[in-house]
Amino acid sequence: MSEGGTAEPHVPRTGAGAATGQVPAQAAGAASPAATAPAPAAADAAPPVPAGPAGSGAGAASAPDAARRTSLLVTLILGGLTATPPLAMDMYLPSLPEVTRSLHAPAATVQLTLTACLAGMALGQLVVGPMSDRWGRRRPLLAGLAVYVLATALCALAPNVEVLVAFRLAQGLAGAAGIVIARAVVRDLYDGVAMARFFSTLMLISGVAPIVAPLIGGQILRITDWRGVFVVLTVVGALLGAVVWTKLPETLPPADRHDGGVGQALGGMRRLLADRAFTGYMIAGGFAFASLFAYISASPFVIQEIYGASPQTFSLLFGLNSVGLVVVGQINGKVLVGRVRLDRVLAVGLVVVILAATALLLMATGVFGTVGLAPVAAALFVLMSAMGVTMPNTQALALMRTKHSAGAASALLGTTSFLVGAVASPLVGVAGEHTAVPMALVQLVAAVAALACFVGMCRPWNGAPAGKGAES
Fold this sequence. Notes:
globular
């Protein structure tokens, strides 16, 4: 039984692990730098396979070994793919007030540009995830990145807010490929404690995006308008697509792909949802993400409009909060994972989020009188930092429940998070731009719901998952 009371470890399909039936070396629990990197392949494994356009055939069968030998590069690529949402969201955040003025639209309508992108990323994962289980990881990923670049370029040309919302929806649908396939690739290569550590490593890389994205967005606004933000995002997306095309090998061998169509994909998802523990982790992660996205959606207006901070000050505060998330994520991966049950770490993280959201709500409603920016920023920092243990651990614990259909499982996890987050986005703006009460209330309700789903469905006190895993 793997860490946190989860299903039996996934046996690597190739290399030394296939012969010994052991998980990668990180599962031993050493908190060294090597512990966060992919395990080396056996010395007699096949040589690395160049990542050609097709990424199939015999070469694909040894691709997991090739990926492990090029661990740093693959880790950086996967980190870049998981950074797609914060890049698309956070670089754009400082310009929200300017978009409101430029397109003569109310704040609630402009916030729909965030909701549309988020909803697109949610729905796109439901399509791309099962596709990657059938056709491999590379082809759906490259197609999605190509459409993402085109949609992002069109956002820069949007003449009104309605068209911008439509293009942001297309941007999200296409960008979903990077998110869902990156998680599936991790599941192809790792399991158990090793997977939890690798997710924390990815958080270190992808966590740089929310740190630098608002800073870059704020600086772009010094020399151009909000349209320039989408020009920069277009260039970044094109560069990422080129790196994926040339450097990322196929990690799902043809023998492990699903031959069935839509019916088989839906059947696999039904089996996953029938597993109560998987569904509990999935829903808990979705509500935790809603608490996070309430902050992402409302903080530009709370910090800049209510407390009078400049776009540059907002960007600095946003970056500081992201540093907290990354640091706690690394503590999770290098110190806690392998020493403390993942369920316990997750429970503590959710409780901290609830406490921080409660403090924000009390300040927003005036219980403590008139407060300045500093205590509000401190509470937001604590809330964001706690996400460094909630997000990677809900994903790892859920994916441990399935040995196959990693694309479908990743799609369900991502879709739930992004759909719940998309619902949270407009709710934080229902009372206008001059109160932080909706933001704090949405964060608190979402965090309490996440903890309730975790306790009620995952039942961590049992020391083992309720019922059998999603797949045998």
